[in-house]
Amino acid sequence: MNPTPASSPGAARETDTGAVSAPADPEPTGNGPAVNSATGIAPAGQPLTRLGGSTEYVGHLEDGAGQAAGTGEHALRRRPLGHEEYHALVQDRMRDLDALEADGGTRLAPGHGLVVALDVDGTILDMDGSVSERVMASVARLRAHKVPVVISTGRGIAAAMPVVRHLGLSTGWMVCANGALTLRLDPDAPGGYEVVDSRTFDPRTAIETLHAAVPDGILAVEDPGAGFKVSRLFPDGELIEDQRVVTFDELVSQPVTRVVLRAPGMPVDRFSQIVADSGLHSVEYAIGWTAWLDVAPEGVTKASALEALIARLGTDSAHVLAGGDGSNDVEMIEWAGAGVVMGSAPQWVRDRGDILTEPVWRDGCAAVLDALIERVRHP
Questions:
Q1: Per residue, what are the HEC states of the chain?
Q2: What pLDDT, on the 0 to 100 scale, is given for residue 1?
Q3: Which of 131, 174, 231, 373 has the fewest CB within 10 Å, making it most exposed?
């Protein structure tokens, strides 16, 4: 692994044999994005769900990339829908749900065993860490109708808990780390949750394979509830959780829920090809908007975690509506009775869903949730 410059905090030193020695500063370091003061939530630093906000991926969105006035920097132009536009969007989503049912699908509406599973970043959470009033209201209305709303995210526990707290979800269930962790939310439990299922794997083979394929890459393993152990620090603003620089031996020393590979500056097409050619196997992985790879235990996805969870709840996948926008959401979207894809998703993800809605900044998710609720009034 390439050494981190000596002036960097927590820098690791590379020995003559190429092994990484102990870091100079073993304390966790937080260099993630600033927490949104209104919500208490850190916006996604992971390029997987930044919706083109990464400096390496400006200009992806059709109505997105432009120049910020007077700054010379790229910015996203985001205009929320007005009342009439939003009402029309809800009506469109109602027609989509009606069409799914007419095509042989299960009726999805409160009171019919419905479960709603939602991704976080790019689905209910905007790029600045905000949740719109419409999303907040639609989630609250579903809860009032006794519909389980299950947050299903790639975030770790520490980064996901502020989201559910802001949404008012103090009880219920949450899937974290792309399906490797399932939590029961309990306000009386330490931290407000209990881990009811944890899926881990030995990271050694994956880390050795990825290091050989991308020697300059940053490798990390998740330490649930604490953050990440990393080979060197991620670029500022990218990793939400705390990170601690450790030796290679410590990275591979115990089973983990997730391995991350980041290759700053590498084009995503090249990165994807390198990963595909690396020989990585017996794991699940997802590549994001930029050179970022999440590796999970074999067979573990958001869908696999939700499948086990709904068995607890006494329902089945046909009664689940799931929404997301990224490659790590595809299995969940395909598995659910109604798979909703956000308008900001890449085309190949859009192709996997049943319903295409507007992007997060146009309240595409809220419109689907409100359409579900409207089906109670218009059976």
A1: CCCCCCCCCCCCCECCCCCECCCCCCCCECCCCCCCCCCCCCCCCCHHHCCCCCCCCCCCCCCCEEECCCCCCEEECCCCCCHHHHHHHHHHHHHHHHHHHHCCCCCCCCCCCCEEEECCECCCECCCCCCCHHHHHHHHHHHHCCCCEEEECCCCHHHHHHHHHHHCCCCEEEEEHHHCEEEEECCCCHHHEEEEEECCECCHHHHHHHHHHCCCCEEEEEECCCEEEECCCCCCCCCCCCEEECCHHHHCCCCECCEEEECCCCCHHHHHHHHHHCCCCCEEEEECCCCEEEEEECCCCHHHHHHHHHHHHCCCHHHEEEEECCHHHHHHHHHCCEEEECCCCCHHHHCCCCEECCCHHHCHHHHHHHHHHHHHHCC
A2: 31
A3: 373
pLDDT of residue 286: 75
Q: What is the pLDDT of residue 237?
A: 77
**What domains sit in the chain, N to C, each tagged with a CATH number?**
83-198+300-377 (3.40.50.1000), 203-295 (3.30.1240.10)
Q: Report pTM.
A: 0.81
